Amino acid sequence: MLELPIIRRGQSIGFSNGGWKYDRYPELESLDAGKAITVAELKGPGVIRQIHSTRHNPAELFARGVVLEIRFDEAPTPAVLCPLADFFGDGCNGKGMDFTSLFIECAPWSYNCYIPMPFEKSARVMLRNDTHENTANYTFVEWERLSQWRPDLGYFHAAFERKCFQLTPESDVEFLHLKGAGHILGRQFSVITDEPIFREFQFVMEGNNEVDIDGAERALDYLGSEDSFT
Questions:
Q1: Fewer beta carbons under 10 A from the terminal one: N or C of the chain?
Q2: Structural domain of residue 178, as residue ranges?
Q3: Model pTM?
Q4: Does residue 215 lie within any of the structural domains?
Q5: Per residue in 3-17, pLDDT tens?
Q6: Please, which residues bridge with residue 69 across strands?
Q7: For residues 64 and 93, is the Cβ–Cβ distance under 8 A?
């Protein structure tokens, strides 16, 4: 923490708003039904430092009805294409609990992501409302301009997947398969079960979380889903 008061050379920073046209910036696009809006259109080299977005009511309509899309360097496929709530760890259609972590936060009225997302040429952050209802949204992106691009910087990606299965001793369900160089920053599970033994619980237990890396089986092997997150 002693680094905080150290005076450093200033950095070029930027800020981009989206969604909330009812105040100082009436030219902003609102997140109406069936509409996609661009929250940030950035020129690189730079790095996104924070993404903030408000939560929507009713959650059962908008949690997965509003989709977050992020593209870097005009790539043909998005690096992030995920329901807004699930990206911030508010799973099961907005039934998640409030929490704060190093990278993402689910606050009472909003979401925050602090994962640094570098880009060489450009970055675009978009929201899409796939529902039949308009919603009042406020989203902002904080970013920092880099003096030059570093070739050792990786691009952030996120994957979203839904599965339905019965957990048995013979179960072997794959959630993510990646190829190439990179870092795994984390994972988030949201589980709803009708298993009778868990009906009075506030969590689901057991089911080993296994991670194979570069051909090494069970490089990580957590004995129980609940233990791998606590």
A1: N
A2: 163-230
A3: 0.84
A4: yes
A5: 778 887 777 788 899
A6: 81, 126
A7: yes
